[in-house]
Design a protein that fits this description.
With 58 residues, this protein is mainly α. It has 2 helices and no strands. The protein is elongated. The two termini are 25 Å apart.
Length: 58
């Protein structure tokens, strides 16, 4: 079982096939860990903000 974005090129090339196309896997949690002691860059802050705004984010 892999994330679809991770295997998209293999599916498109026919190297992999969906065996259970109606089966849905549970969502995966993503965590953002960074040191509070270090200055956070604008790029990291934007990414963390995007994750926080994503539906289902905690």
């Amino acid at each position: 079982m892999r994330a679809e974005w991770d295997i998209a090129e293999y599916l498109a090339a026919g190297r992999l096939a969906h065996l259970l196309p109606d089966y849905r896997t549970p969502g995966a949690d993503i965590s953002a860990l960074y040191s509070q002691q270090l200055q956070i860059t604008a790029r990291v802050k934007a990414f963390v903000d995007l994750l926080a705004e994503t539906p289902g984010a905690r």
